[in-house]
Write a structure and sequence with these properties.
Rossmann fold; binds alpha-D-glucopyranose; 476 residues; 18 strands; binds adenosine-5'-diphosphate; 2 domains; nine-stranded mixed beta sheet; alpha/beta
Length: 476
């Protein structure tokens, strides 16, 4: 079974969030299921630099405004096709935004090119490769199923990692796409008179998945569906939720070269050295009290505005906080202000730092994830694996992956963390108090940590579910 995976991010080549972790980890997990995944990605400078033994697969004289070459090679063990189109992708930094922090004005062309090339390759534009299934991730690749539906190609899967980002463009963009006129319709890319890339992918894919069972239900409701819930309800039979796993080699506390002190569930006392290192990095007063951690985009989705407003209460519980993140300026400022008020108790590093994110999971006592919505969430999975107890909002994948420490779950020795709902200051502060109370009883706390570390957060089960989905499609 050959699957072409199309996405705008691929760990470790290019990453702004969990999408990259997923597309980067799935190929190895699927190999064990007899599925050979090839990943097609835009040829950003970092991608072109990482590509090894690249051979020309196809040359376009003109792909959305300039010549382009599809180069197939390997990178970090992945089988990669890079779209070497300098006029679209030879731009350093963030894959979506220019230096001014705004979307590139030609993003409609850039990501139509990704989808078009993916559909062409999957359909066998080069006679040496043809995919059995084209698997497209998020709006940037979402025209893939539209192209295969209207121009021919294999069966397609559309995976929604975050329905808040839909790729909507004015109707004039339609003329650039090279699609037949009938694709500008309700069962194509037309969306309230404009062009909707994700809408088109959802309308035309042979199967739709999202990254947790709860989010699969949520996006069928007006509250979470962001305008696409009606379409998803109509196509509910095609939709399923497959929870994300994590790369348990990259994230392994027993063998993590990015942390000072490796440990297992049986040597949790060794985490103390990581906690000291974390305190030093964040200029926190060293002590053995509760240390909360946050690794997050600082955005409304992540509930970080509410979190910023709860920081005095967090300190009042006697706990400390180390926060690593970057995002909206107003939220960054509010967190900075709190750190100034609570020197030594709240430490903040604004930025994106993959290496430090490992130390956070290995040294903090909790990982806080107060998201308003969360399709899956990966940081709580890293937390479980690292004995860093998740304190999460009860939504989406967070509610599917963390078992709340209520009385029944504690008695049954099943709890792995804390959940709260709805997301507001009062419920968040209550959860922080519950965590502090539990932490005071180290025996109970160790139980949470150990059970979390025993939980299977690998890709094993979910890779099997994707493989089964592909097989069903090919059979149908
Ligand atoms: P999302 O993709 O919505 O941001 P996820 O929890 O699925 O949320 O994935 C976030 C990924 O990005 C995780 O791998 C997390 O460790 C990483 N991450 C987020 N912010 C930072 C940061 N400031 N520095 C390093 N890694 C980060
Ligand atoms: C998106 C979601 C996140 C999910 C990730 C990978 O970024 O916001 O919840 O874990 O995709 O699927």
């Amino acid at each position: 079974m050959k699957v072409l995976s199309a996405a705008s991010e691929l760990y470790p080549l290019v990453k702004t969030g969990g999408l990259a972790d997923v597309t980067g980890a799935l190929p190895a997990a699927l190999a064990g299921e007899g599925v050979a995944v090839t990943s097609i990605v835009p040829g950003y400078p970092a991608v072109m630099a990482a590509l090894d033994k690249a051979a020309l697969l196809h040359a376009y004289p003109n792909l959305f405004g300039g010549p382009a070459k599809l180069m197939r090679g390997t990178a970090h063990g992945l089988d990669v096709i890079a779209i070497d189109a300098p006029h679209l992708f030879d731009r350093p930094g963030n894959p979506y935004l220019g230096k001014d922090g705004k979307d590139w004005p030609d993003n409609a062309q850039r990501f139509a090119a990704l989808a078009r090339a993916a559909a062409d390759v999957a359909g066998g534009i080069n006679k040496h490769y043809r995919a059995d299934v084209l698997h497209c991730h998020d709006w940037q690749a979402a025209l893939g199923p539209v192209y295969t539906r209207f121009l021919g190609g294999p069966k397609s899967v559309m995976t929604v990692h975050n329905i808040a980002f839909q790729g909507q463009f004015p109707a004039t963009v339609f003329g650039l796409l090279g699609l037949p006129q009938q694709a500008f319709a309700i069962d194509g890319v037309e969306y309230y008179g404009n062009v909707g890339y994700l809408k088109g992918g959802l309308a035309t894919a042979d199967a739709i998945t999202t990254v947790s069972p709860t989010y699969a239900q949520e996006i069928c409701t007006p509250e979470y569906g962001m305008g696409l819930d009606g379409l998803l309800r109509a196509r509910r039979g095609m939709l399923c939720g497959i929870v994300n796993g994590i790369d348990t080699d990259v994230w392994n506390p027993a063998k993590d070269s990015l942390i000072p002190s490796c440990y297992t569930a049986r040597s949790l006392q060794k985490r103390a050295a990581n906690k000291r290192a974390l305190e030093a990095r964040f200029k926190l007063e060293p002590d053995d009290g509760l240390l909360h951690g946050v690794v997050s985009r600082l955005t409304w989705q992540k509930g970080m505005d509410i979190f910023a407003a709860s920081l005095d209460a967090l300190v009042a519980t006697g706990a400390r906080l180390a926060l690593l993140g970057t995002g909206e300026t107003a939220i960054e400022n509010a967190i900075f202000d709190a750190a100034t008020r609570h020197k030594g108790r709240i430490g903040v590093i604004i930025g994106y730092d993959e290496e430090l994110s490992h130390l956070m999971q290995a040294g903090a006592d909790t990982i806080l994830v107060p998201s308003r919505f969360e399709p899956c969430g990966l940081t709580q999975l890293y937390g479980l694996r690292y004995g860093c107890v998740p304190v999460v909002a009860r939504t989406g994948g967070l509610s599917d992956t963390v078992i709340d420490a209520n009385d029944a779950a504690m008695q049954a020795e099943a709890a792995t963390g804390f959940q709260f709902s709805p997301v507001d200051e009062a419920t968040l502060e209550h959860a922080l108090c519950r965590a502090a109370d539990c932490f005071a009883d180290q025996k109970l706390w160790r139980g949470l940590q150990k059970r979390g570390m025993e939980q299977d957060v690998s890709w094993a089960r979910s890779a099997a579910a994707y493989a089964q989905l592909y097989r069903n499609l090919v059979k149908a």
